[in-house]
Amino acid sequence: MTGANSGVRSAIVVGAGTSGAIVARRLTDAGVAVTLVEAGGYDTNPAIHDPSRAGELWHSTEDWDFFTVPQPHAGGRQLHLPRGKVTGGSHALNAMIWVRGAASDYDAWEAAGATGWGWADVEPIYDAIENDLLPVTDDYALSPIQASIIDAAVEEGLPRNPNYNGGTLDGVSQEQVTIKDGRRVNTWTAYAQPVAERMTILTGRAVHSVIVRDGRAVGIRLGEGDEAEEVFADEVILSAGALGTPVILLRSGIGPAAELAALGIPVVHDAPGVGKNLHDHLLSPVIFATEKKPVGPPQPGVSVTQSHLFWRSRDGLPQPDTQPIHFSVPMWGELEPRGTDGFTLMAGLVTPYSRGELRLTGPGLDDLPHIDLAALEDQRDADALAASVRQCRRIGGQPALAEEWGAVEVYPGPDVADDDVEEWVRRTAITYHHQVGTCRMGSDPQAVVDPQLRVRGIEGLRVIDASVIPTVPTGNTNAPAAMIGERGARFLLAG
After folding, report:
1. Per the count of CB atoms within 10 A, which of 2, 323, 368, 468 is most buried?
2. Residue 146's Cα: distance from chain center in Å?
3. Could you tell me which of 468, 279, 292 has the C-alpha nearest to residue 380?
4. How far is it, in rounded angstroms, from Cα 252 to Cα 211?
5. Is the pLDDT of residue 2 over 50?
């Protein structure tokens, strides 16, 4: 369907990340005049394109470098939330792992009111993405340590799963990734960049708010104060992510009325759900040194993570609740480094019960948001992540690692008994970079957007990114964000 047929002649897409790049491409192909706005610059940093250098991007100019407020259930620490501030968004910073999630994830969305988002609806979209512009592959050579990690997981009793995106998540697998010829491929490079000359692209421009007149979004404000600039279009699409999109909505006067009024922001539409329902996956490290042979440094073009596993920490779960991710380097993070070589089995929680929120601290672009993940607030989250840490410790002790490599646990270390692992988890948990939910879609009055991703109460405004996810899927969120981009573009063009 063309833009003319759908009635959409022009559109502003805010955010050139995973979802936004796809939306911009699909609208451009349909003849819509697209203005794509990105707060960061172009992806000229070589570290973006070399999978072995992804770790260099944290705290860089390409990272929004968000932090949570102190997390009382996670050692009182402020957790770093890296988010992409560059063309490609967080898909320019991440580990390029492609996970659809479980069919039951999406059927649960639909049952909760996200009509038309069940597995039968989204599976064809995944098929189309993977067979169209975005290369998704596990056809690459495993690093020796990664092959041994997979062998050790099998020795621990996990099945070897040759295709975790094939309908069954459980087991240990080689990761399916968006890498081609040793280079990162993201939706910016695959979708938007090839048609960049057919759209207007504004980089280095921060969006302050959406312009709403008589209940309809008509454009956006770039910057603020005397330097503010207004840009207009038929439709406004916010694809700034689970942290960026609610911030823009709140500054626009779309959000919880009392919170907005307290900051002196005129209320345009009372939307109590904006910024609520924030949740994220969490990780906790188990780090090993090797005494028989070195793992070696990262190799150009080779990701430092190539395998992961899905496992149920207790009986009766509809899908796995843990997803350890395995690194060919010691991921010291805030821990004291103990050497320069080794590997990390990063325990992972992927079905969190805890829910936090995002609020504004002021109406200006420089007012940092108050981000509270409520990390590990629900005891079930701590229990699952602690069980995952214990499993990673057992895997490290299997012959494929302990005997072949001489693997020795450095952290938590022998002084931390299995019974004390929960304290370790609360002291070391970090984000898996999968924030979702702050503009939840649904059919109830508390939902920020309806199942067609239209912002309730405001015409001409949609949210198309991971913020609309009601409950985080089982696994990495890059693939779901791409799927949401494809579906959102279809909804918009259908009128």
Report:
1. 468
2. 24
3. 279
4. 7
5. no
